[in-house]
Amino acid sequence: MKNSPITPAQDAALIAAIRAAEVRTSGEIRVHLEETCPTPEPLDRAAQVFGELNMHRTAQRNGVLFYMAWGSRKFAVVGDSAINAVVPDDFWERTKEAVLHHFRGENYVPGLEAGIRLVGEQLLKFFPYDATTDQNELDDTISIG
After folding, report:
1. Which domain holds residue 88?
2. pLDDT surpasses 60 at 63
3. How far apart are CA 47 and CA 129, in angstroms?
4. What's the total number of domains in the chain?
């Protein structure tokens, strides 16, 4: 990734974190990285990318996207309607702050991993894995914009 703060080994670590969180839940987690955020608000861009990645097409509407524009120093986390309906009101803000705590020290991968763990815990609580119906609906790889 040109100028990306994420090395190939870190990319693999993030994919492993996503898979570890998803193995116990029907929820889907993705990470999207790009150098520059083209919108004033990163949450707007995250919502746009969420749609572009077809994350709204999961069976239970429980996908979560971590969005980071490293050059613009922008970050957002966005969840689909079903997870939004059940998590505590301050969950997304707390998750964002947990990630940004690491980002402030330029510890991008540990920050994303912390956020992925927090989201995985909520997905497990509200959307536990069901071996008879669940499948991995979205690609676990890190998307690049």
Report:
1. 8-128+137-144
2. yes
3. 25
4. 1
